[in-house]
Amino acid sequence: MANLKTLDEHREYLYQTVKLKLFFLRNWLRKHPDETLSATLRNRVDIYRKTSINTGLLNPTTLNFECPEWLELEHRLEHVYEQYKDNAAKFEEAAFAVFKNSIDERLEKDYKDESRIAGYQCGCLRYNEYNDGLKHETASFHIANALQPESFFTDPQYMPRCFLELMRQTAKKYGSTLLGTGTWLNSLPRWLELFPQEWQDNLSPENTDVLWHYGFWGQFITARGTFNYKYGELMRKTGGMPFYPRSSSCSFKNMKKHLKEKYNVSD
Ligand SMILES: CC(C)(COP(=O)(O)OP(=O)(O)OC[C@H]1O[C@@H](n2cnc3c(N)ncnc32)[C@H](O)[C@@H]1OP(=O)(O)O)[C@@H](O)C(=O)NCCC(=O)NCCS
Q: Which atom of ligand 1 is nearest to the CA of 219?
């Protein structure tokens, strides 16, 4: 049985994640000279949410990018970029120093925050909710590891049960008959095994237009919620993400058949 991560491990997770995002930011800007540093920092990485300027939880509904404290950090980062844009190691070190105190200030709040799995109706899966009284053909879903420090892959029947529950609830509430999502996990063979051939056939091309959210960056989080050094190193070596998000969908009918045949799990 794995141990829950400690406060020290969470600090290390935040530090390593922010350093990797700064590594990514410098690379991205060099390849996309028409994009501003501010746009990359705000939209493609989520450093803001890890600083004390974020007074909300993990994923606040409003972001205060125009407040003087944030603009000051952006301004300092721009200065560091101008100084060290040709030296990856020096840039990362100086850029991290810009954010470190602000991350430290928010550390305990971030560690205690359980909003990561708030509203997940089916174990590790959450579907979009509607109050419009209409039928919603596709049950669009999101994924989080509600089993930390264990992985949701450990028990092979666990995710199949979550999917059955999601199909049961969304069929009843919205008349849904299709499952769909876009995620980095759709590039991970272990995840794809959960789905029928129809899902594999419907996979979209990789989305390489990197955005800040977990559909891209969730891959750098381990099952325990610590930093995934293996994938972090891969990004540092290749400059790209180990896994890019792809979207897919399939019918409840084919999914249920697959879960029964492969995992012996059924309603
Ligand atoms: C989804 C999730 C549970 C998958 O976790 P997992 O695959 O069980 O993760 P693991 O901790 O086993 O790590 C995966 C790999 O990295 C390796 N790894 C993990 N930590 C490591 C470390 N510190 N150093 C080196 N390698 C490490 C593991 O050994 C494993 O490698 P393997 O597949 O070759 O055995 C996890 O990534 C997560 O919670 N992500 C955040 C949520 C998310 O991304 N949601 C999707 C949003 S759309």
A: 37
Separation of CA 219 and ligand 1 centre (Å): 7
**113-122 long-range contacts, Cβ below 8 Å, gap at least 24?**
113/57, 113/58, 115/57, 115/58, 115/59, 116/58, 116/144, 117/144, 117/146, 120/144, 120/146, 121/165, 121/166, 121/169, 122/162, 122/163, 122/165, 122/166, 122/169
Structure-token pair, residue 142: 């999101």
**Centre of ligand 1 from the C-alpha of residue 222, in Å:** 4
CA–CA gap between residue 57 and residue 257 (Å, rounded): 39
In the chain, domain spans: 7-113, 118-207+244-263
- Confirm or reject: Cβ of 229 under 6 Å from ligand 1: yes
pLDDT by residue (tens digit) across 215-225? 999 999 999 99
Reported as a single tens digit per residue, the pLDDT across 89-112 is 999 999 999 999 999 999 999 999
